[in-house]
Amino acid sequence: MVDQGKVVIADTDHFAPGSSDPLWPWRAFLRGHHPILMDFGLIGGVPAGSAAYDEQDPASAAYEPARRAMGDTRRYADRLDLLAVRPLGHLSSTGYLLADPGRVYLALVPSAEPLVLEVEPGTYAREWFDLAAREVVHVDRAPLAGKEILTPPVGAAEAAVVLLVRDGQ
Asked: Whose CA is closest to 138, among 130, 146, 147, 148?
């Protein structure tokens, strides 16, 4: 994603040991990094799904929000042309944006405040993903141009992701 000949791995072991914040995978991914989790709940070789794995165990359960968020970012990554998108935080009021301008934009709205996003003119399919509920909460189509103020739909939790895909793409 970042065309600098380098792969940047955002590893919680180095910047937030023990972190299970479900926003960090989105922040890292939308800045062009590759997030990985130092998962103290699984260290020791206990694979998820095995009889020894217990989601209710506090040592493991604390990491579940971050694990799920990593899966959610992966599903969105699979929908993007990762060779075409690049981190363009300067086009977003939150600073968290992957975009192929004029074609696709994926932005994080980490709080309930509106997002100001600079988009090229066109009609876009707009999909809002609620990070707490982990589901798409609103889909519509809208003509957009220039600096747009996008407000997460009613019913979205505080944090959301919006995906804009220009018609015909």
From this structure: 130
